[in-house]
Each structure stands twice: as C-alpha cells, then as structure tokens.
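Lab channel / #folding
Pinned by the channel admin:
"Please post every new chain as: sequence first, then the structure tokens as a reply. Keep commentary short and put observations after the output so the thread stays searchable."

First post following the new format, from NK:
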Amino acid sequence: MLLYKQKKNQSIKGNRFLISVTVLGSAGPIRFVVNEEELVATVMDNALKLYAREGRLPILGSDLNNFMLYCPISGTEALSPWETIGSVGVRNFMLCKKPQTEKSDDSEKTTAISRKGSGSWKAWFHKSLNPKISSH
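Reply from TO:
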C-alpha cells in the first residue's frame, strides 16, 4: 500500500501548495493542498466539501453556481471558474455566496434591492464589522 501511494504522488504533474479559503461568516479559514493546475471551480468544490465535512456553520450547500471565489488582494473581481488556481499567484482566498436577487412585480422595490446589493464584498465585510454605520 505504501508503494502505491508513492507511485501515485510521483505521477502528479505540477507544483502543489497549501491554500487558505476563508468563508464569510465562518469562524476561520479552511486549509488544504491543491495542484497549481487545478481549476478554480475544482478548488471551490473541494472547499465546500471540506466545509461541510467539518460541520461548520452557517450551512452553505454544495452548488458551485451559488458561490464566487475572490482573491482579497487583487481587487473586487471574482475569479473565473475556468482559470487555474496557480495562475493567480496567491494562496489566500475568500469564498462568498452570490447575492440573491428577489423577484418582484414592484419595479421600485427591485431597483432598491439592486442598488443595495451592488456593493463589493469588502464594503459588506466592513459594514458587518461596524454595525453602527448605516448607509442612510
């Protein structure tokens, strides 16, 4: 069995490295080893599986289409699920749920929701740290 594991590790191409994925609202980051050639979608899937396996709260679900992976130091744009994780050049990431839009017949309500949800995850994060600051 030991020889099999060694052969398996030798056949892996590319560099492997440890990454940290922080989930908004969770107690701490998830850390695991990835291959630099893995797709961002695969990394997100692995992070969601580890998160669920560890029994973390809040419960997130497992649908990749409901989440975005960010690199906090590179800006507010989410990473493309089709790029490789090694192409980003960092090891710390943030996993966020995509904003939910509510469907309504009242157009005023819809515009208010879209304006409210148009901020970045950084704005939401800072607002959640300082609940006394309001957007009025």
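NK: The chain has two domains: 11-98, 100-136.
TO: also worth noting, The helical segments are 2-10, 40-53, 107-116, 121-129.
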